[in-house]
Amino acid sequence: MTCGWQAALQGIKSRKRRRILKKILIIAGPNGAGKTTFARDFLPAEAQTLRFINADLIAAGLAPFNPETAAFKAGRLMLEEIDECVDAGHSFAFETTLSGMVYLKKIALWQHLGYQVKLWFLSLPNEQIAVSRVARRAQQGGHSITEDVIRRRFKAGLANFHERYSKIVDSWAMFDSYQRPPKLIDWRNK
User: Fold this and answer.
1) What is the pLDDT of residues 157-166, one digit of tens each?
2) Which residues of 143-166 are buried (b: 16+ CB within 10 A; e: fewer)?
3) What is the pLDDT of residues 33-59, one digit of tens each?
4) How far apart are CA 141 and CA 122, in angstroms?
5) What is the CATH number of the domain that holds 83?
6) Could you tell me the residue range of the domain that residue 123 belongs to?
């Protein structure tokens, strides 16, 4: 028996399989969408990608009692780790809100270097759900993010996905992550 997300992903696999030795999977979405949980479930079982780069996990390692204080340094270390993986030719996955445009030029470079770049976007119906989920996570001991930052990233990430990132990656899938497990709602393969 397959999980909902496993069944959904079977629906977007290409009939013509080509051997790609190097791949990068971007797991994106607003704060509170469940990106890390999705990655932990999906990567080992389905993507055969065990290298997962996550700024939040790096920050927790740098400052376990207050990871928010290490967020900037963790972001820089995450970018360095991504560059190291690319330089070594390793496949990997990473997590982002897509609220910035730092990866746009990198994606073109990665593709030029022979990487297949996939993007899975975990969406939520609205900003308030993202705010509520982050607040609940913080109450349970997880990392917190201010409401204004959550709202800014929500808008920017969704706009960047539609207007920029979805146009340049090799394939993308959008999931409704309000549901558990996340439900596939749209996809595109080149």
Assistant:
1) 999 999 999 9
2) bebeeeebbebbebbbebbeeebb
3) 999 999 988 888 766 667 999 988 898
4) 22
5) 3.40.50.300
6) 21-189
